């Protein structure tokens, strides 16, 4: 599905009379050498062009064939831009790329110069008009192609498909659904960006791009796909950076689906000519080298791509292209026999969602009953459209088009939604983007409002064009808020550093354990989804820390659908030392500044929460000045902390003050930064 296109500025020179100039030697007597080179380029391009066309009409990927053909054709185009057939061929190359909008001027020029330059001109000219929004003109061109091309029966399914798309587009655009679709410009470049997968809280995004990555370019100067991450900061997505770990290679690495807890990633890549599905896991700050999924999913007999986790984690949905079929990729699924051994059963086809054309990326909603699927099949406005299917009594329903403006006459796919149902992210190569495929944000409007004379005010927060309408828009199906994102971090109560901890979630009404998981070792982060309308118990344990438990309610229909907790764990391991970096004294003095109170009060709380805890408070200096004075100063400062804690109700018998002066450095005193680190106050647990 991926086409790498290098944008080259071209000037389409038309003679005033729109006269076609054939590639004949008689027309170029003054530049025989240029004519010879142009003809050679066309001949080379034709070889790739033929291979590309054969693949397209076999419902297969043309690979780089159209790209390789276009590079050759553009050499000839610089020599003679007024040839109808050459403009047609360049237009076809663009039409079968991710930059399909660029085909429009070439195919229109071809039609003006020589409307009979190729038997397929009307077919592709109709496609150019379709992309340009002239759906009635496109239908006329398709009908003309059927009437004139004697072998049209061989391509009747493609022509019928295009005519249906025009009909669907006219109706969909006339009745748009209640949603905004905005280009997320900070994520996009002139290259292809696609494969968005957003975390359930909407704060993290994984995507794929073929932007320059330092790898070796391919034959047409394009780069392989890599996977990138971005974080939502103050409402703006950060500049995407390569995913950390051993995920990206010099092959195409394409993101598919981020697990709901954000700890696993499905992707696909091509190895030795075979496309298979892989899985990577987040360990600390890095993602592991992807492992190919078992043969029941990543088989040796076919290509697989575009996978999605099921809501309960027991199944994986994916696409498979069986070489004996002529209808492209179809949707399959495979379920685990055991979560412990993770043995997947033989894959099953979901016949009710498959069409006679390619099925694309899949996304299973958190409710486990809703599938968002991209398809080129019946009901599309053009290219890939996003459809919705419901699981009714164990059977997936026939997919329904999500409608305009989510879908357009261009390729629209890779639906990925947030848990609250308000937002989703898609990829599209629609007109007006940054280049190729771009990432777009979908904002659902919510409940229908009373009719007003003009609804332009609805769009004040959007960058899309305002729509004037004297009636209510057709409502769009949006998932009700039946679950909540529970996210947070586990940290040390004093140092505020992340702590890896085990968490158990229990439904207090039934006593049933809902989920167990481990927080991230590098960040302490966790994220899960829970059903609303229940009271939950949370139990947290980590080696060397006091057991933590609490309960919390998630009201049914909660307005924000987000619980965000900072879980502070109390260190009780004897011998543990923690530097109190927020304890401040005046230079050369032992009087505590008021800025120290927050840090000291956290220590007071720890001592009260763990009444058997005993500690040593120690003061440390750098090696500047007299050692004797430094030892005296450090002792006075340690005692000042003990005095503060005593005044807050902590028994003096539980604490000792010790000044070490410069005798226990933690780093070299040879630099200003090192001396700064050595000037510190610490507490060490001596008993519990």
Q: What count of structural domains?
A: 4
Averaged pLDDT: 87
Count of beta strands = 34
CATH class label of the largest domain: Mainly Beta
Global morphology? elongated
What would you call the structural class?
alpha+beta
Determine the number of helices (DSSP H or I, runs of at least 4 residues): 10
User: What is the CATH architecture assignment of the largest domain?
Assistant: 6 Propeller
Features:
single chain, 688 residues, alpha+beta, Serine Threonine Protein Phosphatase 5, Tetratricopeptide repeat, Neuraminidase, Immunoglobulin-like, 4 domains, 5-stranded antiparallel beta sheet, 10 helices, 34 strands, 29% strand
SSE blueprint and pairings:
Elements: H1 32-56, H2 65-79, H3 84-95, H4 103-113, H5 121-131, H6 135-148, H7 156-174, E1 179-183, E2 193-198, E3 204-209, E4 226-233, E5 236-237, E6 241-242, E7 253-258, E8 264-271, E9 274-283, E10 286-287, E11 291-292, E12 303-309, E13 315-321, E14 330-335, E15 348-349, E16 359-364, E17 370-375, E18 385-392, E19 395-396, E20 400-401, E21 412-417, E22 423-428, E23 438-444, E24 483-492, E25 502-507, E26 512-518, E27 525-531, E28 534-541, E29 548-554, E30 562-569, E31 577-579, H8 597-609, E32 614-620, H9 627-647, E33 655-661, H10 672-678, E34 680-687
Parallel strand pairs: 24-30, 32-33
Antiparallel strand pairs: 1-23, 2-3, 3-4, 4-5, 4-6, 7-8, 8-9, 9-10, 9-11, 12-13, 13-14, 14-15, 16-17, 17-18, 18-19, 18-20, 21-22, 22-23, 24-27, 25-26, 25-28, 28-29, 31-34, 32-34
Helix pairs in contact: 1-2, 2-3, 3-4, 3-5, 4-5, 5-6, 6-7
């Amino acid at each position: 599905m991926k086409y790498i296109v290098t944008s080259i500025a071209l000037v389409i020179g038309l003679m005033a009379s729109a006269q076609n100039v054939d590639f004949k030697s008689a027309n170029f007597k003054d530049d025989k050498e240029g004519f010879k080179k142009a003809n050679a380029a066309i001949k080379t391009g034709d070889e790739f062009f033929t291979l590309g066309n054969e693949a397209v009409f076999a419902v297969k990927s043309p690979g780089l064939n159209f790209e390789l053909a276009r590079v050759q054709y553009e050499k000839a185009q610089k020599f003679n831009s007024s040839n109808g057939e050459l403009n047609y061929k360049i237009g076809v190359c663009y039409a079968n790329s991710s930059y399909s909008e660029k085909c429009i001027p070439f195919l229109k020029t071809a039609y003006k110069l020589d409307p009979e330059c190729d038997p397929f001109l009307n077919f592709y000219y109709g496609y150019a008009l379709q992309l340009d929004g002239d759906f009635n003109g496109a239908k006329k061109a398709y009908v003309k192609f059927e009437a004139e091309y004697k072998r049209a029966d061989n391509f009747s399914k493609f022509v019928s498909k295009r005519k249906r798309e025009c009909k669907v587009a006219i109706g969909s655009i006339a009745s748009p659904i209640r949603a905004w679709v905005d280009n997320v410009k900070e994520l996009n470049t002139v290259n292809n960006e696609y494969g968005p997968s957003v975390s359930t809280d909407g704060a993290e995004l994984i995507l794929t791009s073929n932007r320059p990555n330092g790898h070796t370019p391919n034959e047409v100067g394009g780069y392989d796909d890599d996977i990138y991450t971005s974080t939502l900061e103050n409402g703006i997505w950060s500049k995407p950076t390569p995913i950390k770990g051993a995920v990206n290679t010099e092959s195409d690495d394409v993101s598919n689906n981020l697990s709901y807890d954000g700890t696993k990633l499905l992707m696909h890549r091509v190895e030795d000519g075979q496309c298979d599905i892989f899985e990577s896991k987040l360990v600390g700050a890095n993602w592991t080298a992807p492992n190919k999924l078992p043969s029941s999913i990543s088989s040796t007999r076919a290509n697989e791509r575009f996978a999605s986790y099921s809501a309960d984690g027991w199944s994986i949905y994916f696409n498979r292209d069986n070489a004996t079929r002529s209808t492209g990729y179809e949707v399959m699924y495979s379920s685990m026999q055991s979560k412990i051994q993770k043995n997947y059963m033989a894959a099953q086809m979901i016949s009710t969602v498959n069409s006679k054309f390619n099925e694309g990326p899949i996304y299973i909603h958190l409710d486990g009953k809703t599938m968002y699927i991209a398809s080129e099949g019946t009901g599309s406005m053009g290219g890939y459209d996003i459809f919705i299917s419901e699981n009714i009594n164990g059977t997936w329903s026939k997919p329904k088009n999500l409608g305009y403006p989510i879908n357009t006459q261009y390729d629209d796919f890779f639906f990925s939604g947030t848990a609250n149902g308000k937002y989703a992210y898609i990829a599209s190569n629609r007109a007006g983007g940054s280049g190729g495929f771009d990432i777009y944000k979908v904002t659902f409007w919510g409940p229908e409002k009373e009719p007003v004379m003009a609804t332009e005010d609805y769009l004040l927060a959007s960058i899309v064009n305002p729509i004037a309408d004297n009636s209510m828009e057709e409502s769009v199906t949006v998932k009700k808020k039946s679950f909540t994102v529970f996210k947070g971090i586990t940290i040390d109560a004093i140092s505020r550093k992340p702590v890896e901890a085990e968490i158990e979630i229990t439904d207090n009404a039934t006593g049933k354990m809902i989920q167990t998981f481990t927080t991230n070792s590098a960040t302490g982060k966790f994220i899960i989804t829970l059903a609303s309308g229940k009271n939950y118990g949370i139990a947290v344990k980590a080696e060397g820390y006091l057991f933590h438990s609490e309960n919390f309610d998630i009201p049914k229909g909660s307005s924000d659908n987000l619980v965000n907790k900072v879980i502070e764990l109390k260190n009780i391991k004897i011998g543990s030392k923690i530097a109190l970096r927020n304890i401040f004294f005046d230079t050369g003095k032992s009087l505590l500044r008021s800025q120290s109170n927050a840090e000291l009060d956290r220590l007071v709380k720890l001592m009260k929460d763990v009444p058997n805890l005993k500690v040593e408070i120690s003061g440390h200096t750098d090696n500047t000045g007299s050692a004797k004075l430094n030892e005296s100063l450090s002792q006075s400062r340690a005692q000042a902390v003990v005095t503060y804690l005593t005044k807050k109700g902590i028994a003096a018998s539980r604490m000792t003050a010790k000044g070490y002066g410069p005798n226990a450095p933690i780093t070299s005193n040879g630099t200003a930064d090192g001396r700064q680190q050595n000037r510190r106050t610490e507490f060490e647990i001596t008993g519990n």
